[in-house]
Amino acid sequence: MSNNLFNENILQGKVAFVTGGGTGITGGIARALAEHGAKVAITSRKTENLEPMKQLIKENGGECLAVAADVRDFAAVTNAIAQTIEHFGKIDIVVNGAAGNFLCQADELSSNGFGTVIDIDTKGTFNVCRAAFDELKKNQGQILNISATLHLAATPMQIHVSAAKAGVDAITRNLSVEWGRYGIRVNGIAPGPIEDTEGIKRLLPEHLKEKLTKKIPLRRFGRIKDIENAAVFLCSEAASYISGVTLVVDGGHWLTGTAFG
């Protein structure tokens, strides 16, 4: 706790609903929100994927509810939202982090493979936003969508994810305009290469890591902690007049126009 950059109570009294909150970047965000005073509900397709993070948050003094739901299923999402409200009494913050990814050349990618990623990332993001709308309207809440930098230039073997995350960015912009009248803020974070994630381990060949590092202006990979800090800021009152922004957190990498080096 002593390493936190923000006041430990900066999110005191808030309730956050985090999809994909059991592992990876959004698991880190869920933990960080809890460390800064928020009560957190985390969701994934399988409850067993959530239990370790739930236990960790509780061991650190936080409150956490684990709810199984597939973001592609609007009824399941609606039920998870309802369970969260029943348990914590409200929802103030929604974090959309559920995502799917794999490497595949466009000429080898099946329609089903393309559609699956769109359904999880883009449709799933909309489903959660739409299911939480009434509650967010009531509480003048906010949405944080986890995007990527893959589509800001062009990334080979990632056409499916690039299209999906471009859609997420569009959702962020559109909802910030349409729902701003209700006091709802909608923002995003686009992480660049984040070293301590399964994505980097699975998708980036070891021999390209050093080459890619040289293409990053800050000359280092990001860490999940970098994304956590951006998320806590955007979810706090310090960002109360920021909406419709997808904050790129990548050490300046996308500006070099490179993907995997």
- CATH-defined topology: Rossmann fold
| Main sheet: strands, sense, barrel | 7 strands, parallel
Average per-residue pLDDT, rounded, comes to 94
Order the strands across the largest sheet as they lie in space: 3-2-1-4-5-6-7
Number of helices: 8
Secondary structure category: alpha/beta
Order of helices and strands: EHEHEHEHEHEHHHE
Distance between the ends: 36 Å
Number of strands: 7
Main CATH class: Alpha Beta
Descriptive report:
The protein has 261 residues and is an alpha/beta fold. It has helices spanning 24-35, 51-59, 74-88, 111-139, 159-178, 198-203, 206-215, 224-235; strands spanning 15-19, 39-44, 64-68, 93-96, 142-146, 185-191, 246-249. The mean pLDDT is 94. A 7-stranded parallel sheet has the order 3-2-1-4-5-6-7, with helices on both faces.
Essential attributes:
261 residues; alpha/beta; Rossmann fold; 7 strands; globular
Short description:
It is built from eight helices and seven strands; from the N terminus they run E-H-E-H-E-H-E-H-E-H-E-H-H-H-E. With 261 residues, it is α/β, with parallel strands linked by helices.
Write the layout of secondary structure elements.
Elements: E1 15-19, H1 24-35, E2 39-44, H2 51-59, E3 64-68, H3 74-88, E4 93-96, H4 111-139, E5 142-146, H5 159-178, E6 185-191, H6 198-203, H7 206-215, H8 224-235, E7 246-249
Parallel strand pairs: 1-2, 1-4, 2-3, 4-5, 5-6, 6-7
Helix pairs in contact: 1-8, 3-4, 4-5
